[in-house]
Inverse folding.
């Protein structure tokens, strides 16, 4: 009898948990899609929370950037690197936005890319769940 109760309880628990991935969107608007060889471009990453959720400012947030060809101004980011800051004493959770410059490879390279690995926690009043995302930004070099 106990063997039948445990699987049913597990199914009920799964049905109650919200779809955490639906509580946010990772955006890259403002990133450079095309740059001239040797000139600077910019990678922009923002995490937009939805439906009353927020990105935790207490749990770790980490973004690791890499590129085979482009030279990045910074390769590791934390919430402190967000260009949008929480006002002191505020109960509001602003959506974090990160901007990192890069220098495109020299002439001869036709394209490059910047890769990003994001780890952060998305929270509501009922749940706080760790999220990981991988992004790739293709950049055409002219």
């Amino acid at each position: 009898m106990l063997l039948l109760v445990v699987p049913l309880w597990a199914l009920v628990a799964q049905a109650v948990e919200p779809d955490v991935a639906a509580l946010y969107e990772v955006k890259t608007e403002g990133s450079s899609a095309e740059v001239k060889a040797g000139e600077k471009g910019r990678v922009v990453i923002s995490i937009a929370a939805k439906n009353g959720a927020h990105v935790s400012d207490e749990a770790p947030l980490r973004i690791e950037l890499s590129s085979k060809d482009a030279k990045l101004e910074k390769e590791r980011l934390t919430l402190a690197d967000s260009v949008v800051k929480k006002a002191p004493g505020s109960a509001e959770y602003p959506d974090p936005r990160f901007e990192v410059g890069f220098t495109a490879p020299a002439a001869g390279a036709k394209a490059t890319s910047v890769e990003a690995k994001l780890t952060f926690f998305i929270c509501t009043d009922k749940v706080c769940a760790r999220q990981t995302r991988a992004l790739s930004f293709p950049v055409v070099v002219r």
